[in-house]
Design brief:
Elements (H helix, E strand, L loop, with lengths): L6 E3 L15 E3 L13 H4 L3 H4 L3 H26 L8 E3 L2 E2 L5 H15 L6 E5 L2 E5 L7 E2 L1 H9 L5 H5 L3 E2 L4 E2 L2 H12 L10 E5 L2 E5 L4 E4 L1 H11 L6 E3 L1 E4 L5 H15 L4 E5 L2 E5 L1 H7 E5 L5 E5 L1 H8 L14 E5 L2 E5 L4 E4 L1 H11 L7 E3 L2 E4 L5 H5 L5 E9 L7 H13 L2 E3 L4 E3 H5 L10 E6 L2 E6 L3 H14 L3 E4 L26 E3 L6 E7 L3 E8 L5 E6 L3 E4 L3 E4 L13 E12 L2 E12 L4 E4 L5
Parallel strand pairs: 3-8, 5-13, 15-22, 35-38
Antiparallel strand pairs: 1-2, 3-4, 5-6, 7-9, 10-11, 12-14, 15-16, 17-18, 19-20, 21-23, 24-32, 25-31, 26-30, 27-28, 29-30, 31-32, 33-36, 34-36, 36-37
Helix pairs in contact: 4-5, 7-8, 10-11, 14-16
Length: 612
């Protein structure tokens, strides 16, 4: 900064010298600019008195000069600091300098619209392949407000705001997941998954699975490259990165030698306050798991649930399963029955202690701690669920009495489901609730449909119970999650609104989409099975409206070889039909749900050759 020293001399009427002028005068004694030499005394001395300007004039000149300088500085400052964005600032060619934030936002939006840059296809090179992506498909966009904020902060220095220019990069956003998915499809077979390290047991023999690196896109790196290069007008090259699991082949071999092999070399003794149990090598092999995380890091652990299954009934003398509170119907009203706590091995401690002794060749004994286990469902919880009234009931009929294997299967599954409580928001799976329905579970051979034919199969008849349960939940207004009608229509079932089941491939599921609990109450006689749903009534009514049958086809006759596996049938017409579930609440239809199914024409099966 330059300084102008000013000396002010004021002449008064009482001065002893005769004044040439009685106004005040200003004397400028020195003006120093960068690089100038200071004025010498000899140059300033001659005739100084008579040639001096009037003092008042000198004051006015100096004040005027100062005002000019200050005015220039103020003007320059006003120019430099006009608007929120520094002058000379551009974004994608749009001049935003000197504008307010709101003006800059409008100008940048207008420029992006004029240029069409936001809709231009993004050209990406992935390995050896080229692909064009629509920006909207991968969430590419310019955050205009954030870009203007960045432009406003481009430079706060006064001189920088006054002179020069600067280009500010736009703030670009992208949906990294959608971009990654699109580029994975484009990359095709250029990428490969890494081989996850593992140790698996064949019987009691551990087998190592050695890791291999993979070639893949790096999601975050890809997103950054695309954000930077999108609006450059040039193709963006996305690198394929080789990634290897954290656990190496050497570490896998070490785990086999130091843990997996010695683990199954001998049994382990489990001691508890209630007695001891021997854990054989086969049970150890089934429960010792080597799991790899997302980074491919292999970690051994004991799966106590698998261990319990492997030990089967050997833990029965040590553990007591907790029993949930349950509901039963007494005198036409639901009543809660208290459950009880159990005693089970501390799973976390058992897993830790067992894993610690498995590498040893001697002293293979662990002490198991039994702890009280509370039931998941208590009477207090049941009382709060609002299970107070029957909201639906459905009955189907069968023949043969309870002495027939098919009827016994219906009764067996009804007993297993009776009393089940489904909490609000939970999904009930019939397969999940009963588990496998085999001979060991009390089921018998009865006719089932397999490959379009009626043949003997374990659990035949359980589809009738499934249809009964499906209809009970259907008329309760509960959400249908999964069901599959039969291939052929049987007159004992309502058309379309029916369901088959087969372990483990076909299931029936419904979701309790109400704020109340749901109790499934089942009962049976020698000729019928009934399912009732108890909860809190929500809807006025749930009814079915049927459309007409169409595309009717007639059965053909098929002759089969006589024998125990041949089950004759009369044949049934095939057809397509729609059914509409109409749900009313407060006198209005709140939901109209369409169900459709195409029934095949069931052939007329004859056990014997065709008559000539």
């Amino acid at each position: 900064m330059w300084y102008v020293p000013i000396e002010v001399a004021v002449t008064l009427y009482g001065d002893t010298r005769p004044p040439a002028d009685d106004r005040p005068t200003v004397k400028v004694t020195a003006v120093s600019w960068p690089g100038d030499e200071p004025e010498t005394a000899a140059a300033a001395a001659p005739d100084a008195g008579p040639r001096r300007r009037p003092r008042r004039l000198r004051v006015l000149l100096a004040v005027g000069s100062a005002a000019v300088v200050l005015g220039a500085v103020a003007g320059a400052g006003a120019y430099a600091y006009a608007g929120d964005v520094p002058r000379g600032t551009t974004v994608l060619g749009a001049e935003l300098g000197g504008r307010s934030r709101a003006e800059a936002v409008r100008e940048l939006r207008a420029e992006l619209t004029r240029s069409g840059a936001l809709n231009a296809p993004l050209r990406v090179v992935v390995g050896e392949k080229n692909v064009e992506l629509k920006p909207a498909d991968v969430g590419l966009a310019v955050d205009v407000e954030a870009t203007v904020d960045a432009a406003a902060k481009a430079s706060a220095h006064p001189v920088s705001r006054l002179v020069g220019s600067r280009a500010v990069a736009p703030v670009v956003t992208v949906d990294a997941a959608r971009l990654d998915a699109a580029l994975h499809r484009a990359a095709g077979d250029q990428t490969r998954e890494w081989t996850v390290p593992a140790i698996i047991f064949t019987g009691t023999t551990p087998k190592p699975v050695h890791p291999k690196p993979g070639l893949a896109l790096d999601r975050e790196r890809t997103a950054q490259v695309v954000r930077v290069g999108w609006l450059s007008g040039r193709p963006v090259t996305v690198p394929l990165v080789e990634r290897a699991p954290a656990t190496t082949s050497e570490e896998v071999d070490r785990l086999v030698a130091e843990l997996a092999r010695p683990a199954v070399a001998a049994p382990v003794t489990l001691r508890t306050p209630k007695g001891s149990v021997t854990i054989p090598p086969a049970a150890i092999a089934r429960s010792l798991r080597f799991a790899a995380d997302d980074a491919g890091r292999l970690t051994p652990r004991i799966d106590v649930k698998r261990l319990r299954t492997s030990l089967d009934s050997r833990l029965d003398a040590l553990e007591v399963e907790p029993r949930d509170a349950r509901m039963t119907i007494v005198d036409g009203k639901p009543k809660a029955v208290e459950g009880h706590p159990g005693q089970q091995l501390d799973a976390a401690a058992l897993s830790r202690d067992l894993l610690a002794v498995l590498p040893r060749t001697a002293d293979r004994t662990v002490t198991g701690q039994l702890k009280e286990t509370q039931p998941k469902l208590t009477t207090e919880k049941l009382a709060s669920l609002g299970i107070k009234e029957r909201v639906s009931r459905f009955t189907t009929h069968f023949t043969g009495g309870l002495s027939s294997p098919r009827s016994q299967n219906i009764a067996q599954i009804a007993k297993e489901v009776d009393g089940a409580v489904v909490l609000p928001g939970e999904t009930f799976s019939l397969n999940g609730h009963t588990g496998e329905r085999g001979y060991a579970q009390g089921y018998r051979d009865a006719p089932v449909i397999l490959d379009g034919k009626l043949v003997p199969g374990v659990g035949g008849g359980t589809s009738q119970f499934t249809t009964t349960l499906f209809n009970a939940t259907y008329y309760a207004g509960l959400e249908d999650v999964e069901h599959k009608p039969h291939s052929y229509w049987f007159s004992r079932y309502p058309p379309v609104i029916e369901s088959t089941i087969f372990w483990p491939s076909l299931d029936f599921k419904f979701r309790n989409n109400t704020p109340h609990g749901v109790l499934i109450d089942t009962s049976y006689t020698s000729s019928s099975v009934t399912v009732s749903i108890w909860s809190t009534k929500i809807y006025d009514s749930v009814k079915t409206e049927y459309g007409p049958r169409r595309d009717i086809t007639k059965p053909k006759t098929i002759h089969l070889t006589p024998g125990p596996s041949c089950i004759p049938s009369n044949g049934i017409d095939g057809f397509t039909q729609d059914a509409f579930r109409v749900i009313k609440k407060d006198g209005k239809v709140v939901k109209r749900e369409k169900f459709s199914w195409r029934y095949l024409a069931e052939p007329r099966y004859v056990c014997g050759p065709a008559q000539s």
